[in-house]
Amino acid sequence: MKFTTMLSAALAALTVPALAQTTAPSAATRVAADQIATKQGALTVQPITHGSVVFTWNGKTIYVDPYGGAEAYAGLAAPDVVLITDIHPDHMDAKTLAGLNVSKALMVVPQAVAEKLPTEYKAQVRVLRNGQRLDTLGMTVAAVPMYNLPEAADAMHPKGRGNGYVLTLGGKNVYMSGDTEDIAEMRALKNIDVAFVCMNLPYTMDVPQAAQGVLAFKPGIVYPYHYRGQNGLSDVATFQKTVNAANKKIDVRLRNWYPAAK
């Protein structure tokens, strides 16, 4: 995806609210969670919808980009940590946050998100900029770049505004791409055990870009997520075939992140 003019960025931005109205799953339609072994017990990976996932590890619960309605999180433990990647409503969803019990959660966010969050969360917010990290609750949260190519101030996702994240817990490194393209910083990642990689035009990258990026940094496991775009769902089966044709060691896990989609 290339944003080269103010017009293209503006037109694309107009589509974000429509995407943000995607129906989220309820607890009844939520897909089964995965278990990934770590040195300190299992990491539970619970897909929610689009770019949102819930991790449970070592008695702690982490919500990533809670979005789409609090009912999607029914029955899950209240978060100890909330990670938000960017300002768009499919990542920073104030209505969903208001419906969740986040009163005791540490909210790790980029500065742009901190400036837009309701004031009631101010005391809970910890701002991380690209390249910064935080040790909390036995884990490390590192903020990494996410942005569109070519770099431009008028891009939907300019460099430095949003955060991808690398969580280190129980000896495992878990990468959340956020809204990014096949950027050099993603390709340069090392020792990633589990990756969640976006692929939805025109907002992020297409399937071939995502596949080539993953083949560059070689995670042990990769979940395609955030794959609903302007023209429907990306072809994640082709992503899997492309990655595994070049590297059969990468475990590409296809999960239904849109079980409530019509």
From TrEMBL:
<keyword id="KW-0732">Signal</keyword>
<protein>
    <submittedName>
        <fullName>MBL fold metallo-hydrolase</fullName>
    </submittedName>
</protein>
<dbReference type="Pfam" id="PF13483">
    <property type="entry name" value="Lactamase_B_3"/>
</dbReference>
<dbReference type="InterPro" id="IPR050114">
    <property type="entry name" value="UPF0173_UPF0282_UlaG_hydrolase"/>
</dbReference>
<dbReference type="InterPro" id="IPR036866">
    <property type="entry name" value="RibonucZ/Hydroxyglut_hydro"/>
</dbReference>
<feature type="signal peptide">
    <location>
        <begin position="1"/>
        <end position="20"/>
    </location>
</feature>
